[in-house]
């Protein structure tokens, strides 16, 4: 499953994050890649230990906290601090899959937050090989996509301008994607019922079922 989060950042948050990144120092992204990914990774990444990056990470963390859609979809147990990547003209990240574990966190889901206006660069699409067909994703600045970290994916070569993104990984409370889908569907159903009829008994019963399934399936 893939989830689009439109306007994950407010315009003010986006502007602030981008102006922080302008002041940040970037290095070769291959330094943080696994052995196989290193061969296909050609981008720049902001050095982790610098005050402007701490501030940018704070903005990201705030946006995560405020986003119900994100929480309902990812059921996050842990969200890693984001990496900020820059692809200049000619840069790309070939087909790869993400490491299963990152610093003790299991990567169930990956997230890409787009920070550059799509008309300011050509190429640079995120391509995710889903079960059905490749999905080609290029979003408005401030919007994000959450997808399975176990998928094979790539970033197409940037042929004009510069593509800047924040990427992170999430350990979900519910490890199994099929079980997670059931919880996500139930949440949607409960929300739809409550929108029609706030005191619906059926919604209450479904909430009980959802909570009981979470008790069965959730890691802590
Ligand atoms: Ni990746």
Structure, described:
The protein is α+β, with helices and mostly antiparallel strands and 220 residues long. Strands 1, 2, 4, 5, 6, 10, 14 and 17 form an 8-stranded antiparallel beta sheet that branches. The protein has a 5-stranded antiparallel beta sheet with strand order 3-7-15-12-13. The chain has a two-stranded antiparallel ribbon with strand order 8-9. A hairpin with a 2-residue loop joins strand 8 and strand 9. Helix 1 runs antiparallel to helix 3 and helix 5 runs antiparallel to helix 6. The two termini are 23 Å apart. It binds nickel (II) ion. Nickel (II) ion binds next to loops. Nickel (II) ion (NI) binds next to loops.
How are the SSEs placed, and which strands pair?
Layout: E1 3-5, H1 11-22, E2 26-28, H2 35-38, E3 41-42, E4 44-46, H3 51-66, H4 68-74, E5 76-79, E6 83-87, E7 92-96, E8 101-102, E9 105-106, E10 109-114, E11 122-123, E12 126-129, E13 134-137, E14 144-148, E15 152-155, E16 158-160, E17 163-172, H5 177-196, H6 201-217
Antiparallel strand pairs: 1-14, 2-4, 3-7, 4-6, 5-17, 6-17, 7-15, 8-9, 10-14, 10-17, 11-16, 12-13, 12-15
Helix pairs in contact: 1-3, 5-6
The structure holds nickel (II) ion (NI).
The site of nickel (II) ion (NI) has 4 residues, from loops.
């Amino acid at each position: 499953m893939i989830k689009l989060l439109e306007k994950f950042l407010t315009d003010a948050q986006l502007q602030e994050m981008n102006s922080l990144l302008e002041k940040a120092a970037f290095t070769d992204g291959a330094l943080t890649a696994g052995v196989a990914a290193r061969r296909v990774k050609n981008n720049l990444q902001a050095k982790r230990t610098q005050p402007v990056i701490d501030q940018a990470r704070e903005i990201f963390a705030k946006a995560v906290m405020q986003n119900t859609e994100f929480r309902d979809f990812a059921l996050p147990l842990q969200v890693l601090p984001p990496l900020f990547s820059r692809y200049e003209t000619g840069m790309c990240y070939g087909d790869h899959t993400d490491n299963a574990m990152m610093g003790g966190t299991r990567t169930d889901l990956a997230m890409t937050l787009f920070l550059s206006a799509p008309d300011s660069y050509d190429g640079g699409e995120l391509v995710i090989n889903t079960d059905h067909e490749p999905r080609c994703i290029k979003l408005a600045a401030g919007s994000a996509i959450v997808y399975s970290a176990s998928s094979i994916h790539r970033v197409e070569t940037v042929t004009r301008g510069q593509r800047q993104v924040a990427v992170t990984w999430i350990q979900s409370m519910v490890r199994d994607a099929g079980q997670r889908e059931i919880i996500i569907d139930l949440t949607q159903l409960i929300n739809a019922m409550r929108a029609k009829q706030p005191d619906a008994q059926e919604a209450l019963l479904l909430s009980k079922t959802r909570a009981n399934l979470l008790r069965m399936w959730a890691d802590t």
